[in-house]
Specification:
- The chain has 5 helices and 3 strands, in the order ααααβββα.
- It has 164 residues and is mainly alpha-helical.
- It has one domain (2-27, 35-161).
- Helix 1 (2-23) runs antiparallel to helix 3, helix 1 (2-23) runs parallel beside helix 4 (106-121) and helix 2 packs antiparallel against helix 3.
């Protein structure tokens, strides 16, 4: 279980850094570039939640009621995934670090892996499976989209697009 937990943590650190980059999530700058999972994953989750809220505000400004319903469902599902992964995080740390009481077995760890797999899925397009990204990658964010274009969530409010 230690090896599985270490591998999961290593992958989560990689994926979290990628998510922060793609979503333009704010993370406190470190000159040494040594970011930890506890800095990256919460930043990606928090920023995704903010993007959901911003997208609903934009859809509301355009009077796109169906889009608001879709975004609310997406936001609610994502919140459940984030909450489930938080509940399982202690098992990753317990398995990676020395604990005299540590006796986790495969069936204890499977829900942990599933919770994080599901959480990472909340950052992806349901069609192409790629991580979502904020576009453009600099300046004012206009959308959250995937590579195939099926997921394209508007972030611009009506007044912003009219130049006011």
């Amino acid at each position: 279980m230690r090896a599985a937990a270490a591998l999961l943590r290593h992958y989560l650190e990689y994926a979290s850094a990628e998510l922060c980059h793609r979503l333009r999530a704010p993370v406190e700058f470190r000159g040494d570039g040594q970011y930890q999972l506890g800095e990256l994953l919460p930043a990606a989750i928090t920023h995704m939640r903010k993007l959901h809220m911003r997208a609903k505000e934009a859809a509301n400004s355009w009077n796109q009621k169906e889009v608001i319903v879709h975004l609310a469902a997406r936001e609610s599902k994502f919140a459940l995934l984030a909450e489930a992964s938080k509940a399982e995080q202690w098992q990753v740390n317990a398995a990676v670090h020395f604990n005299s009481w540590d006796n986790l077995v495969k069936r204890d760890f499977e829900p942990v892996a599933k919770a994080f797999r599901d959480l990472l899925g909340g950052f992806t397009c349901s069609d192409c499976g790629e991580y979502l990204r904020v576009s453009p990658d600099r300046e004012t964010p206009e959308s959250v989209r995937c590579e195939c274009g099926k997921t394209n969530i508007n972030l611009r409010k009506r007044s912003e697009s009219l130049g006011s």
